[in-house]
Amino acid sequence: MTEKSSDTGKRIAEELAKCNVRLVASLPDNWLMDLIDTIDRDQRFVHVRVNREESAIGLCSGAYMGALGSAALMGASGFMTVIYAITKINYTYEIPLLLLLTLRGSVGDHHKHHISNGLYLRPVLDAINMPYQIIDKPDEIAAISRCYHHTRTFSRPMAVLLTRDLLRGGH
Amino acid sequence: MNYVDCFRALARHRTDQLVVTSAGNSGQAWWAATRDTEATFYLDASMSLATMFASGLALARPELKIWAFMGDGAFCMNPGMLMVERSMNLPNLTHFLVSNRVYGATSNAGLPNVESNDYVAIARGMGLERVFEFRSIDALERDFAALSGANLQGHTFVVLEVEPFSPQEQKLEQPPFDGPELKFRFGRHVEARTNCDVFGYRL
């Protein structure tokens, strides 16, 4: 864990705690490992490692019905597998959900195999009319709270897209 | 055992549990058995997420007891959910796996590997300890007390071996709610039971 990424993870965790997020359900992405480790060590959160991304959608949606704040943390690839779950649960019942995703396949991603996410992640979000906010710099992390409250105000899901520059540094 | 009779027996033993149903037959059978409009969340066609939804609810509200119904069709789509349930080990959650050995919601279409699937063994293989299996109403009536104590000691998994719906039972009414109405009915019930604030404002 680099000093910079650790600090970013702490700031994101702090922002989630400010929203009264208590449950964080996660599946890993290499860019997210420092954040996941930070969340896991932070006693303010119940961190649940799920078996697949859909399970995170179910967990967070049920937590909402019990008045527990939550966030689902996953890579872009994982998000691409959960479209049905989100449209069926969160759209049908109008259940809010905050997703923190990696903006894979964008400029700066070193991994060729994320070309599909670079091409289709944002078009898929647009196709299901899911609002999203890109966070590229540490001084933008405060937007996470605004996004969380937006999901609650409009009873809909929303995605926060975290860039490599934010999570791993821009080199 | 007959699917609907099994659910009627469960309904007779229910006290104050909140219920989450899975798609199709379990929602139809629970609606037929209870006509519950407040304390049941009829989760439609989530493709295996009923018990994850129930786990989130159970984590959020440890003072409530939660029953979750899931067909074995949904279970086959996502058996790894049991790993998550086991790691959470919520004492107020009971997962009922309704094993009719078919995809009941889609006209009793066949399940993969149906002759060999041993759901009790799968659960034990994932480390679950409180595992029950019922194959008759008599056994369910006789031994239900063991389940009602289940909420005291940890996450509980119950396999109910039932017959598939008959063509007549397939015509049972689906729970009639629009999604938002169901959300508000159920959420207001949770608020009333626990004095929590689900929606950001109380009525």
Describe the 3D structure.
The complex is a heterodimer of chains A (171) and B (203). A six-stranded parallel β-sheet of chain A has the order 2-1-3-4-6-5, with helices on both faces. In chain A, strand 5, helix 7 and strand 6 (157-162) form a beta-alpha-beta unit. The mean pLDDT of chain A is 94. With 171 residues, chain A is an alpha/beta fold. Chain A has a single domain, classed as Rossmann fold, CATH 3.40.50.970. Chain A has eight helices and six strands. The longest helix of chain A has 16 residues, at 3-18. Chain B is an alpha/beta fold. Chain B has a single domain (3-194), classed as Thiamin diphosphate (ThDP)-binding fold, Pyr/PP domains (Rossmann fold). Chain B contains eight helices and eight strands; from the N terminus they run αβαβαβααβββαβαβα. In chain B, strands 2-1-3-4-8-7 form a six-stranded parallel β-sheet, sandwiched between helices. A two-stranded antiparallel ribbon of chain B has the order 5-6. In chain B, helix 1 (3-13) packs across helix 2, helix 1 (3-13) packs parallel to helix 7 and helix 3 packs parallel to helix 5. The longest helix of chain B is centred in the last third of the chain and has 16 residues, at 179-194. Chain B starts with a helix and ends in a 9-residue tail after the last helix. The mean pLDDT of chain B is 94. The A-B interface holds A 23, 46, 48-52, 54-55, 57-68, 70, 84-85, 88-89, 92-95, 152 and B 20, 41, 43-61, 64, 78, 80-81, 83-84, 87-88, 179-180, 182-183, 186-187, 190-191, 194, 196-198, 200.
